[in-house]
Amino acid sequence: MKNHEEKLLREKLSDSLRKKRYEHSLGVCEESVRMAKEFGADRDKAFVAGLLHDCAKCLTKTETDELIKKYDIELDSMTKQCEPVMHAPLGAVVAEHEYGIKDAEILDAIRYHTVARKGMSLLEKIVYVADMTEPHRDYPGVDELRKASKKDIDEAYAIAVKCSLIHNINKGSVIHPNTLEAWNDICEGGKGK
After folding, report:
1. What's the pLDDT at 63?
2. What pLDDT shows up at residue 190?
């Protein structure tokens, strides 16, 4: 990806997100690129997926409803219940239709960056972990996760899924079935694709 293409993506995204969300997206992008280099993933795909992972995060309820109608998006009942994760599948649609991203691997990394899934690809794991380790994140366990993200993506991914489960359990929130399947896959020794 050329520098001017990256710049255009950053400029377009900055126009659609609040300042704090945009800074978070830059942090996830930076972490995604770092981990791609470390673990052998495609740097350009990591850049795009990391940058655009929250491209639908700041949509209003009306904009979300319009997007669902416009692109005939079907969301499973659990995603509808877990409203904070809805931006991920919507983000994949926005990335495709508003940013022209056609690469399925990038779109899946955006789609699953909040709930994970069984059989995550390397790029999906990277964006999932980067979203939880970017420099603005501060929560119990983040330092352990950051250390793991520098040495072993599978270990970091397992820690990240565990943190997500514990966070949701402590909040009394429902847990998306994809996250449970991801955890079970980890426990059964699955390392994804």
Report:
1. 92
2. 59
